[in-house]
Write the structure tokens for this entry.
Amino acid sequence: MDAEHLMTLSSAARRISDLVAASETPLRYEVMRHLVRVSEETMTEVLSEAVGAGLVRRGDDAFTYVSGTDAIRADIRESIGEARLTRMREQIAGATAAVMGQ
């Protein structure tokens, strides 16, 4: 995906792709929704947008998502930078504990 196309995506769809790329494991739908803080309807729309753009795809479990490709994950992680990547992983861990009761 080129930068011009990426700019046409909603901020929530870009946030989802960042979260999925930052995660060390497939990211659960419930955790993404908790972090993006949108309604169920909006979440469905922005997730569909991110999937349609090829930034994310379903994981092996129907309720998880992973980056569209390894190259996309690597590109997004590089653009995020280490400090933000660390913060995002902490947010993912906190949201997973809150949502999944871990």
About this structure: The chain has six helices and three strands. The chain has a mean pLDDT of 91. The longest strand covers residues 64-67.
